Amino acid sequence: MRLLILHQAGVFGGAERTTHNLLTHLDRQVVSHLTLAAPNALRAFMPARFDDFIDTAGLIQHGWFHDIPSLRADVRATEALLRQARPDVVLGMMHYSAALVTFAARRLEKPPKVVGSFRGPIFEYIRRYERGFSRRLFLHTAITLTARLADCILVPSQGTARDTRWRFFGAAKRIQVIPNGIDGAAVRQAAEAPAPGMEQLPLDMPKLCVAARLSAEKDIHLVIEAMDRIRDQYPCSLIIVGEGWEREALASRARDLRLADRVVFAGYRENVFPYLSRADLYVHTCQFEGFGYAMLEAMACGTPVIATDCPHGPREVLSGGRDGVLVSPGSAGALAEGITAILGDPERQQQLVEKGLRRAEELSVRNMADRYQSLFQTLVAN
């Protein structure tokens, strides 16, 4: 089987980790030829387990939907890419890549089977951050056509599957849920590396950790505000791993609340696991989420997790609250209560560690890769 993966991204996040894990764990006796098409900036983060690499930076000009002319130009470039790679199956990672391979494949005489990977609740993003009726209509139409025309749409959670069916009229029989997976042993080995910045945290306080892109939808300010609410009962410190345009606003909020000496910004780190493993509690705050890889990574490190019960990932990753603590989204008060409940109960904290480790084993990367591979084989056979 010849497989092409198109991934238009220049930074490393949850979707990129999925691509990384697929490259690492696909059976190369089944996938006889694998082509990775991505911007060259992403290549450094990926294992060299592909036969061909196509730098899309000079071919596909965009990583997101801009307008109809740019979409048409990128579809034509993707068509040329498909003719060059000659795949039996093409996987478009994330919404824009999924749209490009879906539309481009329909221009070929013998199109490959097309799998689009929708990594999160895109409707929530459009509703909150895109402005103007025509802009929203364009995005909704493009994503709806992708969901209707692709041979299969892969999503990491049941919530994202519902979002795709209800909001974008995706055909139920073509939508498949394959949760993200993790290699627990590899994570724990990588966690043994140093964690620069952790030494700046006070030694006499529980350590909270956030690992995320510093953007508005991550709601990281809630963690700082929750720390302020419990500063007398359970004073905590916080290390934030990641970069983004919200960094200065977060630092300013910590200063305003006189918490700057307890909050450390570690910046972007390719290896986040040393930070996750050294924390007493991982805190996941989001307005919306497709899955939430960092929660699973923290659990694999033996760190308990508290998360906001946002659409859609945390509830599924944490098994409805059995394998971690879920609190109301957007509420610093609810988050503060949840943190207090965990830190004030060492027995429960240990139970969450054990449950998290078991959950990480259930959601193994081997299982994820096998399910992707089985899907590809079924599509080619039909």
Task: Describe the structure in brief.
The protein is α/β, with parallel strands linked by helices and 382 residues long. It has helices at 14-25, 40-43, 68-85, 95-105, 122-129, 133-149, 158-168, 184-190, 221-229, 247-256, 273-278, 293-300, 313-317, 332-343, 346-362, 365-381, and strands at residues 2-7, 33-38, 52-55, 89-93, 113-117, 152-155, 175-177, 207-211, 237-241, 263-267, 281-284, 305-308, 325-327. Helix content is 45%, strand content 15%.
How are the secondary structure elements laid out?
Layout: E1 2-7, H1 14-25, E2 33-38, H2 40-43, E3 52-55, H3 68-85, E4 89-93, H4 95-105, E5 113-117, H5 122-129, H6 133-149, E6 152-155, H7 158-168, E7 175-177, H8 184-190, E8 207-211, H9 221-229, E9 237-241, H10 247-256, E10 263-267, H11 273-278, E11 281-284, H12 293-300, E12 305-308, H13 313-317, E13 325-327, H14 332-343, H15 346-362, H16 365-381
Parallel strand pairs: 1-2, 1-4, 2-3, 4-5, 5-6, 6-7, 8-9, 8-11, 9-10, 11-12, 12-13
Task: Give the fraction of residues assigned to helices.
Answer: 40-55%
Instruction: State the major sheet.
Output: 7 strands, parallel
Count the strands? 13
Order of helices and strands: EHEHEHEHEHHEHEHEHEHEHEHEHEHHH
Named CATH architecture of the largest domain? 3-Layer(aba) Sandwich
Q: Which class of the largest domain in CATH terms?
A: Alpha Beta
Class based on secondary structure composition and strand pairing: alpha/beta
* Whole-number tally of structural domains: 2
Mean pLDDT score, rounded? 94
Identify the quaternary structure here. Answer: single chain
